[in-house]
Each structure stands twice: as C-alpha cells, then as structure tokens.
User: Fold this.
Amino acid sequence: MSLALIVALPFVGALLPGLMIRFGRNASALAAGSVTALALLALLFHAPAVLRGEVVQTRVDWVPTLGLNASFFLDGLGLLFAGLILGMGLLIILYARFYLSKADPMGQFYTYLLLFQGAMVGIVMSDNILLLLIFWELTSLSSFLLIGYWKHLPEGRQGARMALAVTGGGGLAMIAGMLILGQIAGSYDLTVILENKALIQSSNLYLPALILILLGAFTKSAQFPFHFWLPHAMAAPTPVSAYLHSATMVKAGLFLLARLWPVLAGTPEWFWIVATTGLVTMVMAAKIALFKDDLKALLAYSTVSHLGLITMLLGFGTKAAATVAVFHIINHATFKAALFMVAGIVDHAAHTRDLKRLGGLRTLMPVTFTIALLAALSMAGIPPLNGFLSKELMLEEAAQTVWLTPWAMGLMATLGALISVAYSLRFLAHGFLGPVRDDYPSRPHDPGFGLWAAPALLAILVVVIGLVPMLCAVWLVDAAASAVTGQAVSAEIGHWHGLGASALWMSLAAIGGGLALLGIHPRLMAMWNAAPRPDAKRIFDGIIEPLATSARALTEALHNGSLTRAIAIATLTIVAAGVWAFAGGAHLPGTRALLPVHVVPVFAWAVLTVATVATALLHRDRIVALILTGVVGLVIAIAFAYFSAPDLALTQITVEVVTILLMLLALNFLPKTTPVESTTPRRLRDAAIAGIAGTGIGALVYQLMTREPAFEPISVFHLAQSKPGAGGTNAVNTIIVDFRGYDTYGEIIVLGIAALVIFALSEALLKSPTVAARLRAIGPGTNDAGDRHPMMLAIGTRVLLPMVMMAGVYIYLRGHNLPGGGFVAGLVFAIAYLIQYIASGYVWSDRRQRYDHHVLIGWGVLIASLSGAGAWVMGLPFLTSGYGYVTLWPLETFELATAAIFDLGVFLCVLGAVLLSLASLSRMAQRGGERANPTAYDIDPHKEAR
Amino acid sequence: MSHWIIAPVVLPALMAALMVIALRRNLFLQRVASVASILALNAIAIALFWSATTHGPEAYFLGNWPAPFGIILVLDRLSALMVLLLTTLALPVLLYAAGSGWDAKGAHFHPLLQFLLMGIAGAFLTGDAFNLFVFFEVLLIASYGLMIHGGGRDRTRAGIQYIAFNLVGSSLFLIALATVYSVTGTLNMADLAQKLPLLPQGDTALIRTAAILLILVFAIKGALVPLQFWLPGTYANAPGAIAAMFAVMTKVGAYATIRFGTLIFPTTLPATGTMIADLILPAALITLIVGAIGILGATTLPRLVAFAAIASMGTAFTAIAGFTPQSTSAALYYILHSTLATAALFLIADLVTRRRTDASLTAQPPIAGSGLIAALFMAGAVAIAGMPPLSGFIGKLLILQATRDQAPLIWTTILMASFLMILGLARAGSVLFWKSHATAGTPAPHPTEPLAIAATCALLAALAALTVFAGPVTHWLDATAAGLYDPAPYIASTQLYEDR
Amino acid sequence: MELLVAAAVGLMTAVGIYLVLRQRTFPVILGLTFLSYAVNIFIFAAGRLAVNMPPIIKDGASYTDPLPQALVLTAIVISFGMTAVIVIMSLGAYLEAGNDKVDETAP
Assistant:
C-alpha cells in the first residue's frame, strides 16, 4: 500500500470510532484498533525493503508554486518511528479501552487519538519539509484536544493551552526555519535537502535556520527551558500521557534532530547548542524527578531527562553517538510507556498516585509490581535490561566527548545517570515495597487482564531486548542509524566491554550513588521543600496572563467606540498623507487667467461665510443652525447659477428644500438644543483639526482651479456629441441620462435603497416598546404658533398642489434640452406633497395617500432597468439610448422613448423615496399620539378643550 | 459583445424591484426569489469566470459610447474572480439568514441583500473611476440598512457611527476623483493608465496627492490602521449573517488597491513610484498586530471575530504592498481564504451567541448542540489562525515566501501575530466550550437549525476545497497576477469599440 | 474670484469637520451636510469656473465643462439619500437610547 495511504488511514479512520461508539465501547475501540493495525501491517509490508537499505517513496504534486508536495518516503528512521507510533498506538488503544470510565466519551477519545497518530506518522514519513510542518502543527492541535480531553478539569484546560502555546509557538519559529532551509537548498524536498550538507552549512543563513528549527524541536521535546509544559500535560488521561510522552509527541522533536542530522549536525554551533541543552535538560529534569511524589509527575520529569539524554547524544554529532541515541529511543519508549501504564493502573486501584500515600503494593498487586520492577530497573539502567545497554553506551560516548574540559561531560552524564537510578528505585521502593498500609483511599488490587496486558508486553520487550539485543534490536538500530548518519552502521551492542571500559565504572558509580541518594532522600526532600525555586507554571502564567490583560486593556482603549476620536484621527491621517504625497512630487502653479471679482458675488460670498461660521458658533440651537444651513445651501445654489450651472442650481435648491424640511420634521422628535459637553481645550483641538483639513482642501482646490488640464478633457466629446449623438442640447442632462446614464442608474438605486432602509428602520422602531413609550412622552408636535394647522396655509397649499405638479411635469419634459429632468421633477412633486404634510399634519395627509410608496420605488427601479435592458433587444449594450443612431422611421418613435423612459424611472424613484420617508415619519407621529384632524385645517383641539 | 457582463448588476436590481413591488408581504416567496437570484448569479459568475480565463479581458460599453467617453465595465480574470467569490459567499449566507430566521427580524432583508450584491458586483466590474464611487455608495447604503436590520439600541448607534465614518470616506473619494479629473481630464481607468506616464512634470505632486487620497479611501474600506476604528463596532453589532456577508466588503478595498496599484499607479510610474507600497506596508503590519492583539483581548465572541477580520486584512495588505506578481498572487489566495474563513467564523459566532444569554467570553452552561458547534469553532479558528490543515496555512506560506526579501520584519510580524491569535482563540474556545462543562446549569433549549448549520459547514467545506485544490488555484492566480502587471491586454480590450 | 471660492470650500470643510467632531447626532449630521456642500463645490470648481457659458448647446457659443456638473448632480443626489437615512437613523437611535450621543458610553 502506498505510503500516502498509510498516513491517510488514521485520518480517514478517525471518523469510525466516533460512529461506532453507538454500538458500544468495544466496537469503538475495535474500530480504532483495526485502523491502526491495518496501517501497521501496511507499514511492515514495506519493512523488508527498507531493512535492505532501500528507500520507499511516493510523490503527489500538491502546490507546485509553493514547493509544497504531498511526497512521502520511508527509510530506516521513518520505519523505526512509524513502527513505534503505530505499535504503541495499538497497545494504548487496548489499554485505554479498559482505562476510561463509562462517563468518558470514548468515541471522541479514539477520534482524537487517531488524528494525533496520523499526524505523527505524517511527520516521520514526510519527504517535504513544508508537508512536515503541516503534520507538525497538526500534532500540536490534536494533542491540545487530547490533553484537554477532561474538559471539566481546569488543570486539563490549562495544560492543553500551555502545551499548544509552547509547541505551537515553537512550530511557528520552525516554519521560518524550514523556509530558510528550503531556500538555501533550493528545494523543500527532504531527499534533496539531505544531499546538500556543504551548501547549507556554508550558507550565512545556516545559523538562523538552525536556531529557528531547534526552537521547534526543543519546544516539542520539552528541552530546557521549554520543559515546563510537559508535566502539566499530565492532566490528560494516563493513556494519553503514556502515548504522547513515551513514543510520540515529545519524540517528534528528537525525530527532527535525527532527520536533519546529516545536514545540520557536525558544526560547532550544533554541538554547543544541542549537546549542552541536552545535558542541562538531562541533569536538571532528573533532579526534579527525584523530588516528585506524584507518580506521573516523576515519570514526566524522568521523560524530560531521558529526552535530554537523547538530545545530548545527537548533539555530539558522531556516528556512534547517533547510533546510541537511536537505540535509547527504542528502549525509552518500551520502559517509559510501561511505567506510565503502571502509574495509571495504580491510580485506578488505589485512587491515588501520591508516593507518600502508597507503598506495600508489592503483595497487593503482584502482577503490576512485576511489570513495574522490570520497567523501572531498566529505566535505572540495571543489567541486563535494555535500559542498561543504551545507558552504558551513552556513558561511553560521554566519556569520550570533550566539553569545556575532557572530564566534565563524563562527570555530568554520570551524575544524570546516578539521579535517574535514584528516582527509578524510589518509584519502586516508595510505591511498591515497604509494609502494606491500611489507609489507601481504596483497597488496591491487580486489574483485569485487559489493563495489564499492554504494559506486560512492553515489560517482556524490555527483558528480551535486554537479553539478546543483537538478535532482536540491532537490525532496526542499524537501519535507523544508517538513515540518520547517512553511512552504513553495524552496531555492536553487548553487556560486557571489559574492565577497561570507563562506562563500567561510571555505571557502578551511578548505581552506588543512586542507592546512597535514595537512602538520604528524606533529608534531601526536606531541603528541597525548604529551598525556594521557580515554578514554571507561575512564570508561564506570569507571562501569558499579563499579556492577555494588557491586550484587553489596549484593545478596549484603542476601540472604545468613540466616533469623534476615530474621525479626528482619520482626518489628521488623511491630511498628513496628502501633504506627504504632495511634497514628494514636483509642482508648478497654474497659469490659468483668474475670473474678475464683482460686488454681488462678493456679497453672496460674505453671506455664505457669515452663515457658515455662525452655524459653527450657534449649532447648539438646532433650529437656528438648520436655518443657517439652509441659507448656505441657497447661496450655493445661487453660486451654481452664477457660474453657468443652471442644472446644479435647480437641483441644489430643490434638494435643499426637501432636506431641510425632512430635518425639520425629524427635529420634531429630537431635542431642540445641543447641551454643552466638550471642554474648551477639546473645542480648540477640534477647531485646529478642522482648520488643518479646511486649509488643505482649500489649497488643493485652488491649485486645481488655476491650472489647465494636462490632456484634453473627455467632456469635449460630450459637448460635441450632445446634440448629434445623444439628441439633447443640454449637455449636462445628456451626460446624466446617456453618456453616463449608468452612474445615474446607480444613483437612483441609492435613493431607492435609502427609502427602503428608512422604512425598515421605522418598522423596527415602531415594534420596540421603549420607542413607543418615548414617542408618547414626546407627544404630538408642540404648538408654539397659535394654530397647529393654519387655515391660510392649508388652503394655500391645496391650491398650490396642482400648480406645483404642473411645474414638475414641465421640468421633467424639458429636461433633455434645458435645465431640468426627472430628478428635479420628482423632487418638485415631492415638495408639493411635503407642504401638505406641513399644512395639515402627518396623519391627515397620510390618510389621503391611497397607494404604497414602495410601488413607486419598485417601479422606478424596474422602469429604469428595463429601459436600459431594452437596448438588448437590438443587440445594443445596456442603457443605449434611442438616439444612439438614426435608422428606419418606425424605430424612431421607439428610440425617442428610451431616454425619457429612463428619466421616468428616475422620477418615480425620487418621488417614492421622499414620500416613503415622509410616511415613515408620519407613522411615528401617529404613534406619538397625533390625532387625525377631521378637517384639513383646524383650531388647536387643545384650545377648544379649554 | 457579451451582455452577461452587466448581468451581475442588473439581475439583482430587477429581483429587488420585483420583491419590493410584488413580494413585500410574503417572506417565503422573497426567500425563494432570493435563492433563485443568487443561484442564477452563481451560474453567471462561473460563466464570466470561464470567459475571462479563456478569452482574456473584455470590455462592455454602456450606452454604446466608446471609452473613455462613456462608462465601461471590464471583465478580466481579477474582476471575474472577485465576482465569483462574492456569489459563492452569498449563497451560504442567504441560506444561513433564512435558516436562522435573521431575515424575518425586520423589513426588506432580501431586497437589501440583492442591492448589496449589485453594488459589490458593480464595484468589481466597473472600468470607470467615478462609477466605482457610485457603486461604493450603492453597496454602502445597502450595508447600512442590513447592518441595522432588526434594530436595537446598540446596533442603531453603531450604525450611525458606521454611516458617519463612511460619509467622510465618500467625501474623500469625491475629492480624490475630482482632483484626478481636473488634472488629467479623464475618469476611465484604462485611459488613466495610458495618460499618466505622459503627465507633465509640474502635475506630479497633484496626481500623487490624488493617488494617496484614493488609496486612503480604499484603506478605510479595508480597515487599515489607523482607519479601522469603524470595523469592530459595526461588525460585532451587525446581525451574524450580515457580518458574514461584510467579510467580502473589506475585500472591495483590497481589490481596488490591487487594481489601482497595478493598472493606474504601478510602481513603474515615475510620478508615484513605490509611494503606495511605502504607505501600505507599515500600516498593514500594524493592522495585523492590532487585529491579533484584539483577538487575544476581545471581550465578546463577535468582537473577537471582528478583530480576526482586521488581522486578516492586515495580512492581505502586507502581501498586496509587495506589488510583485508573486506577492499579488499570494494576496489573492489569502483574500479568497480569509473571506470565506471570516464569514464562517461570523456565522459560528452567531450560532453560539444566539444560544447563550449574552455574547461575552465568559463560562456559561454548555449551549445546545455544544459538541457540533465546538467542532465548527475549532475548524474556523484553525482556518483564521492560519494553522494547518486548512487553506490559511497555505496562504500564510505563500505570503511568507513572497515577502522573503523583507523576511526579518514581515516574517517576525506575521508569525508573532499568528502566535497571539492561537493564544486568543485557544482561550476563547476553552472558555466557551470546555469551561462550560465545569459550569453548573443545563443548556437552554434551542432549535437545531439544520439549514443554518449546513450553510456554515458549506463555507468550511469551501475552505477545505481551497486547500485540496490549492495547486490549480495558485496556478490560476499566478497567471492572473502576471496579467495584472502586464495591463496591455486590459487596456486594449477597452479600445475594441465598434459603433453600431 | 477663484480665491474666494477656494476659501469658501476650505471654510465649509473646516466647519463640516468641526461639527462632525461634536458628540451629538444632530450637529454631526449638519457637519456632514457642510462637508457635502464643500465637496460638491470642490468637484464643480475642479472643472474650472466660468461665467455665462452654460453647457446648453447653441450655435457659436462657448461652454463650461459639463462633466463636473454631471458628477456634482450625482454626488448631490447620493448625499441626499445618505442624509435622509442618517437623519432617520439618528432619530431611531435617540428614541431607542433616550439620548442622541454618537459615542458609545461603555464599550
């Protein structure tokens, strides 16, 4: 089976346990187990070839531009790890089936486990470092789920988050490292990279790449100073700990060191960083392990210590040391997994993992004890068990390595070994030996076969490998070590290297010293407890929590929901950027002749200036401010007229009227004054900002007015084509409805939407009880003048209505050739209605609207769209007006229509928009309690009442 | 000349008008019409996509006037891609809105949604600078209506802020366009691309100013720091389905920046040179950091997603600022990814929020359907944080590779930001879905809303597809990006006018 | 003349910005109105000023640039729609919240 399939199998299979759980826990476990078994079989199917020294490869292109390909390869190292992962996985699945309680969702557990397993297999088989990165981060994610499996335990949640933060963070660093590595080697394919040792080590990017990659490896393998996450991951169910911390997760880092050993190792940087880190980790973690009473904590730190040991060996950079490292990876996996399972069994049986509360389990749990004995002695490095073999070789390598001084390394290694003897024996002595107690939280007893089968099998491996390594392990070691070092390896693993071997004496020293250490342990423990020491978790939280709180504080301070500040910042940014851009380019002042200044315009200008400034000063009295705004608007209309823009003047004035009236109606409900809120400094600040912006815009427009365009404006074409092309003498109007009719199309859509929005909003408001209450509180429009609806006004407007409408029709019809058009006409019609509202009140007028304004808008949009689409009939583009060309006579009439029809759409949209907005306001007024007047005009009912 | 180019604009308008006239009072029929319209739009988008891929750029001369005198639409690979992205996003969002009942919470949801689609599609397709403004306004005013859909105190006030801020932006847009016209005498984008290289030396300062003002307008849409303040309040207060739809609106800013930065103000234009990149890059990196910090510091789930949106824009603009074919291609891939991912996360946030008493990131009893929604959240979080196996990771790698020249600065920022995001999302998820199991109380009953869930899954599935087919996608995008830096065919297509 | 117009545009922009920076919706709306006044004249003036040259085609007449006028028309209409919406929305916000502050009191 293809390697890709072996990797894919766990991922695909991950769904099964979740589904099978409805058929019971056995079904679920069986599903998970068989998926794993299948993958393992497929792997073993490749084993012979690999052991022969061949490399199995499959390649699927995925993202070629990125250099990311789904290519896998299997060599000795990959085989070793994949075997460990899948084999151990099988045992864990068996163990977990009997470990998890009925309350635990087992389907979920196995799903997570398989996801994790797949990610691990992916890592060890990837032939593409980007692909490897993907699986790498996937292990972080899936282990996050596994560690946090017991959602209700705070330790579980925090442990999971810590593990994700540390390993995930390391993974991010590794992304950078791998990208650099790939760029040096010119490919992201491992098989290519592994060929380019010289190229990589000579590159000046070697050190950054090395450091970034090591960050990833060390965080994963819990090397000092990133070791602290591992013990906290122990909050996970024991099967998870056994899996993650014996054979898989933490070994991923070691795998990476071994995988890249051929290209990264051998340099002084490598030696000093890797070997030193490993050594420090080994000794430091061993020391901590010695003082842990929680079985799992003890094992956790011992794991860190042994990982340090292996890291150190890889750090030596010699073929022999790498071989030993590979061998110890196997041994550590066997005894450590067994010990974790034992810890779980004890926990199950005695309901505690605390060494202080245990002891004497030897007689109560003979089977468990036997397993624990073998595994622990192997961890201590007692002959003839497998742990002894690799530790002996390790000590030999250490003795021959020069680090600072010729003897320092050997000494430190021996110290590490010594302590590990001590804590291993303590695990046994304080856990199993000694008298049977009568104060266990629960009476311990051996578990059923299901629970001890897996550790027992591992214990057997420990013994067998220990007794006949050359028979049952060395071939694997050779294959793997050859893959790591890239040279043929044939290891010689034996129990006896003669009296000359320094390792012998170092071992003896370690064992003797370890026993002594165990002897004086109680006193050391007292000292340890007395001595102050940094708690990694507190340091970690000490970093993360402030980070989170300051992030919250910063975010809240930055995005405090203040619009005024946001706009102030935006304004300054815009001006600054504009000035910066302007300053960066060459500028010649314009040469255009300026217009002469006449008295009347200056007077108008003065009025505008005064009104504008006055608005700013008096804006608190809203009615006054509104009137002043209206004045400004009117002056602008006059200005448009003066500067040869009659269309603009007309539009401006009508829009002005409608806008002001709308705002007046709205002001009915709003407070009539604005309270003094901002301090004087704030007002000065705002004035300054406003001044800066004003100056900038004024200067810019002046520069534009006083120069000629660099190229002939496109409007020359519009003027030329207005009559012959678009059939209208009013160039502005032909542009609006023809040359740029599409803009107008969008523009009336905007109006239509505006009306719909207003309607929807008022609907929502009227539904809200609070709004209704406030409206009633505000009550009907206040009556400052005597009559609410003066008779004269009412009658006048009634007479006006048809006349204004006539005017509207006229403006609409002449639009194409003279100032006017559908938009203005629509507004004029709207005004005709508006004044009815003012004269006789919302309700009276609203009652006399017999149709829904939605229809107006809808038809407006529809007509405009269809008139535009009409051109399709003749194969012409959207919005082609009938005047586009002159052909047969019968078509002429039809063509005449199009532009006008489009303008009709505009007209309807505008009218509908204004009226719908009015209707919305009037509905609020009704809610506000305004009574419908019996007549169009009235004497104030309140007065009558008096 | 294919009339289909205008269809993404006209069809929604017609549908909306129809709904307003005839289906006002019948929500069911509105839903049917809405779905039908968006399905049709999807079909059209695919057809346009195909045509742009096989035939290259094509112009549509509105009113049958030659460019640059009339307004034209231009269909090229980029605009086709963006329209396709829009319609792809619209369908799940619409289904979610119907499935969650959001569209029943107020009047005119469906017509406004149609108008929004019309506006965005128009903005993507237009080849005229001023017309771009018009369609910005169309999409904006539609978005105002949708944003305050359903009303409510906070939402309405947030709506006012949103409008006010964007009205300032629109004024800026008009000032910039007026400057452009005043200096060059044209508004047609292709015409500008041809004329600007010939611009007299004495006008460069003014055209630079116009260029920067335009970019700032797009930066407002794209929520670039320090113009991002409008986004958190708006997106967090908008109805969930609408917030998801808004995920594509920030991309309009990104699109316009790419279009103007490659067609009109390329780095090869002496007048502007690398000015735009110089402005965008620092802003983008800060935006990314601000967004990431926001994710870690957010107080409510919708705000968290809003900051995720900001961070994603920071990442996208970081790539855009590169202004090389490679970085633009990476940016486009990331835009596709982040649009769908952000939208999905907004929907998930809405699923969660509506099942809880409030949106705050505090432990509450497990919500109804906790398991499934937690899984969805995990997927969405993985996507938005750019973790494998979803497309975000590939997008991140593409961007890192495209920016290797400035690796120390950009890589550090992007990776640090990812770290903060992972922290923030892990905290949020653990509080929302794990700690809840340690919190007393039983989940309040809530309808399962299969349609809403399915719509959310559809978006995540789209992300998965984007990952699996990353190879062909990036291949296509590389060609698209290359085309952007060789605008000759685009410009030529605008001159293929023959009068009838 | 141009100087006067430029000054007017600058002044209206300044007042517009100043009012937009107030804390109540109504002055903000007035401010936006002033901004749109300023912008409309900006666009118009960007097409250069001319007296007695309306773009109505006659024989032998010279014309001012009609295009900016058309753009201003579009701008006026759009800002009219926007103003209408924000007016009603401010009304709504006031009725919902009981005050017409623009800034969120507590995020």
About this structure: The interface with chain B takes residues 20, 25, 28, 32, 35-36, 38-39, 42-43, 46-48, 67-68, 71, 74-75, 78-79, 81-82, 85-86, 89-90, 92-93, 96-97, 101-102, 104, 107 of chain C (CB under 8 Å). The longest helix of chain C spans residues 66-97. The CA atoms of residues 13 and 89 of chain C lie 23 Å apart.
